[in-house]
Amino acid sequence: MQSAMQTHGSLLLPPTVKKQLRSEDMERHGFECQNKHCTAASPEISKSSSPSMTSAAPSSEPHSSPLDLLEEPMECDASVVERDHCYTLPPSVSPHSPVASPVSSNIPAASQPEASSTGARSPDASVKDAASYPDTTRPSYGVGSLRLVKCPHCSLRLYKKNLGAHIKRKHEGLKDVTAASHLKNVCVDATRGIFAVQRVAHGFSVPVHVQRKTWGNHHRIKCGLDECHKYQSLAKQSGLIYSLCEHIRSLDYCTKTACEEFLNPEFLEKLASLHIVEESMMSTCKSRQKAAEKDHAPFSVLVDLGGSTHQLCFSVHEPKIRSFSCFGRVIVTYNVKKQTWHCPCTNPRKPCPHKSIGKWHVFQTRKDLLPASTRETFQSHTHPATTELERSVRYTYAEKKIPATLPGDATAPRALTDYPACLIPTEESCKLCPGHPRLEDRFLITDKATIVCMNGVNHNTSTYNKRCPKCHLDYRYQEWRDGLHNFNDHVILTLELCLYVRCNLQNHVSVSRLIGCLESLRGQKFPAVGTIFQAYCHFEALNNTEYSYSCVNCGLFPAVVTMDIHRNRVSKLDLSELKTPPEDFDGQHNIEDFWDSVHLDMISRGFFPNSSTNPFVVRPSYEHWAPWIGKETRKSDSVLNTEFKKMCETEGEPSCVTADRLCEDLSKQNEATLQSLCKSCGVDSRGSRADLINRPKLKNQQTPEVCRSVCGSSGGWCVVSCPHGVVYSLKFNLHTESPRDFADLLLSWKHFPNICLSDFAYDLATHTNSRVPENPPFHPHEGKPAAQTTKNLTKALHQQLKVSLPWLREKPELSDENGHPVTGSSHRYALYHDRPHHGNTTDPHDVLRSINLVPEVQERVNNTTVKRLFAYMRKNNYFLNSVDPSTHVFLMRSMMEHRNTCCNTRLERVQRR
User: Fold this and answer.
1) Which of 155, 233, 318, 327 is the most exposed place for a label (fewest CB within 10 A)?
2) pTM higher than 0.70 for the full model?
3) Per-residue confidence (pLDDT) for residue 45, from 0 to 100
């Protein structure tokens, strides 16, 4: 028989078993089967036999042979081998484990599965009986010290210590909800009747929200658990319309109401300063706190139902009703041991407002539960006082400038491992205190700083600071020679990445798109885009750029300039916050002081994470908002910006928004916007888009309200450039643009240009001459090349009039008094780019302002170059218009400077040919 069953060293069991084993494992397998099925397979075994242990052989009785057992059919009970509980025996058996010999059982018939299935005894009695008649079989797993018993209900073999829990969980019926036996609960919103209830009675489980509101006009009783919804739906289908789940029934015995802890925004700001909560998330948390106060709902409540010493649960307000917040509240949990947060609205690793609010709550009430590194950083070196930080910002701006032209070794590509692992300030003594005392020993800021480069990110960099013992000024690492730029001691950019961001901005690629491409390419998660963008602005603010704003061909004082408006829509500009300046304010601004304050604003964002406590923030105002003109081009550091007078001007104040330009902008609006504009202007709003645009009344509405609706909330940029497309002056307007803005720029120049080309030449000449009536800038003939005679008008209308200005080609030997240094002429004309359109002027003599009258100007000016400049600026609107005003003006000036550099390089290359 053995030879018949053996095939190539293996033994085949009978068909009922259907398992193939090696011959050396066959004997052990037989003993295990006998131990499992001794009652069902061998009822003839003597009850008086005693167990005996052998290492390899069974008992000497004939029927105990394992090979003989193979001949008998063995019934396999599924309940015996079921292992769905954590307290059952492990499924695997080591081949070298000791094997138990088959034994006869002394368990009476009442303990057999057939008898126990009658349910004649209670579960408690079953436990006692099973414990009193243990299974004395020693397991083959090497665990001989633990006693095994069989469950009288399902014949599951398990350790005796787990039998009571098994019967209680698997075989006891549901207990009635009573005062002594109910799910723990607490009220978290007494106004709306919202409670937090234990999900299950044993162990720790995330609470579930339940609403039981039986007062007022609208009653509602509902459980927030999906299983309970299904249970109630099934109960209603069965006719049990009054059936309630155990969570709702447990509320009959609720005696506690959780107290709301008012969360102070100062603690949230400290969390943001520690980079535990992002600044964007901080503003979201504050807005949600205001929303909770408006709804008269608790913002964040600690839910303490016991069950775990290392799990904290918070009931957080959620303004919107969603799948995870059916009652407008969310349960957020914090594992103190693992230091992890969980919220049902997102995955564990992704931040969300609810987790940030929970961190805010813990940081304010139980700071001892936070990670040790966070507590130490907060307690010892969070941030020094505001005065010391201000001094640190000014010291960094004055002493840590980056060269405009960086050497190649500082920007060369490197591997992440080539950058230093510890960033320590190089200063050894205080540069500001008398006597220059030696600085204190370095102290750690973080050992998880992130270096961001083209090849990816490195999260294991340590940053240190040093402190002066006298003035308490903190010195941070800021050494460009290492090829790194430190933003806030937590995010460090490589200089290679900074230059790469600059090149991308010049090509109209925003930082968010750039970082998205790098993340996809490298397969790594980079820091927040907003942080990297601010770090780049921090780099540009420290860069020692000259901002000369001049052309290599036209020099510092161009004789011919073109002027136009670049419109944009700055979403974060609120004109209602502008305060009226003092009565004695004359519109003079110190240009250096203003732009230094903008640079300090960009730098301070690496020191002050929260803008509300940042003293360097620059906000738009009539008294502190200067344009930019090159240092050699302007008269002095005092320049004009008289926008505050726009509020006092009469309705006759001219505007740069001509009818043709307004019609062009109207054509870009959608039908809904056009209909709204028609209604506001009292025009019929019916018809197609073409009909609405061509309505004469709408085309002639050049009121500030209509211009602001079409062109944007701000007045856009006034740009003065030379014929080669190099920008000489920039002015960001707070209100709708007008000739006043260009007059401010021209009157601030050291030398007034001879030819000014624009689409509003008549208004520009009229307004500028009215500003200086004793010495009108535009003369002769009010800025026209020819006198206003009938003969000249007739020739000009027939395009037969030509006025030569030879000093534009060559400077005469004798210059006029107050003449231009390039041409020697004191004549100044305001001309149109092209022939004046009917909508651009109401003066019939403006035909004498056409550029076609002066051949020398036609030779110099290339309309394509000017159009290319403004097309370049328009392509950047999609990311520039989304930032705050101070960042907008800083970045625009920086981008224009780098564009001017590229234009000058191209012009020099052409000259060398």
Assistant:
1) 233
2) no
3) 37
